[in-house]
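User: My instructor asked us to take a sequence, write out its structure as tokens, and then describe one feature of it. I'm not sure where to start. Here is the sequence I was given:
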Amino acid sequence: MNRTQGSEDGASRADWTGTLFLSLTRAVYVGPARDTDPHQHHAIQICVALDEPFLLRPGPQQPWRPCRTAVIGADVDHQLDGRAARHVLIYLDPETPDGRRIVPPQSTSIAPLSEALSAALRESAAGAQDGQDADLYAAVSRCLALTPLEQRRLDPRVALALTIARQDPQRFTSVAAVAATVGLSPRRFRDLFARDTGIGCRRLMLWLRLHAAVRSLAHRSTLTESAYAAGFSDSAHLSRTFRAMFGIAPSALSRGVRFVDVED
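Assistant: Let's start with the prediction itself. The structure tokens for your sequence are:
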């Protein structure tokens, strides 16, 4: 695959375009998907081709396989070439009840999605028109039977921490700081947070920082400005973290993608 370097973070000129729905615990991208570097991330990834199949392989020395759907387990090495065709890409935290239901714990495989579920996702995405982004995200959530955090029983202090995280992600860069804000010790807060949400605090903090950086880039800030705003030491730190998580440079995603913030 040919890549042309030419940006502050070494991004390919073949930017991604489409719509990315971001929440505290998941992301859903709908649109043309291009190629990624070999990478792994803790999120479960679900891929559904809406037009032509995508290419997928578990590592750089492995053969490419054409796929119409795939479920990639947490921390599984993989490389994707979307061939610029239209896809739905869904990222879920594996520690959430939804993640554990879709992919059992300790799963280290890449497997096809059930045909019934993939057909429902394709139908939902294909039926969405411009201006119906919220309807599309809601349809994807319904197809996967995703459970909003607000419908789970949360300790009031955990609920307050989530409110803080939504309103001011930078305050969530320190577990100790957030724990003190809600009147708990760091250890007690971590235990309650994991019990009620199924998400580790540190993973959520990293997700929030990446979320904040992408939002900053979407508002035309430079990579360096976005890195500092999200609590990364510099632009190189942000780019390394982003590439490790998603296999692409942050600017390749941010320049042509429309971002939509959604509640869980």
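For the description part of your assignment, you could build on this observation: Residues 156-197 form one domain. Try explaining in your own words what that tells you about the chain.
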